[in-house]
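Pasting as-is:
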Amino acid sequence: MVSNAPHAVAEVVASVPFTLTSSDIVADQRAPLSLVFDQNDCKGGNRSPQLSWHNAPANTQSFAVTIFDPDAPGRGWWHWAVAGIPASVVKLPSNASASGFLRKIGAVESRNDFDIDGYAGPCPPQGKPHRYIITVYALKSADLRLRQSSPSLMFEHEIRTTALSSAQLVVTYGR
C-alpha cells in the first residue's frame, strides 16, 4: 500500500488546472476605468491589467498573453498580444505594456487594431457592452519568430501553433 501513495499524489498534482488571475479585474464583471482606452470618445487610464498565472505545464518554454473583443463588428478586435515572456515569469504588473517591463524581460508586443504597438484598452461603440477575453498561453517554444509591431493576427497564428495550454478571464465594458 505504501508504494501506491506517490502514484495517488502524482494524479492529484497532474489534475491541477492552469489558471489566470488578476488583482485589477474581476472575472465576468465590468472592466475598471484604469484599463479603458484613452483616445477618441474613451477616457480611461489605458493601463494593461495585472495578471498572474498558476500551474503551467512542466514543459512550458515561454508565455504569451492576448486580449480580444469577439463582439466587435467583423472579425473582432485585437487589443493586445504579447509573446516571448520567459517561462520563469508567472505574473505581469499593472501597466506592464507602457512601463517598459515587457521590454526588460525580452517580450515583444504586436500592433493592435487601434494601429498602436502594445496595449489598448476597451473602447466599444455606444450600445451593448462587449466581452474582452484575456488569455495567457503556455507555449512549447521560446522563439516564435515574432518582432515588435507585427500585426496581432500574426501573433495569434504563432501563439496557437505552439500552445500547450491556456487560461482565460473575461471582462465586459460598455458605453
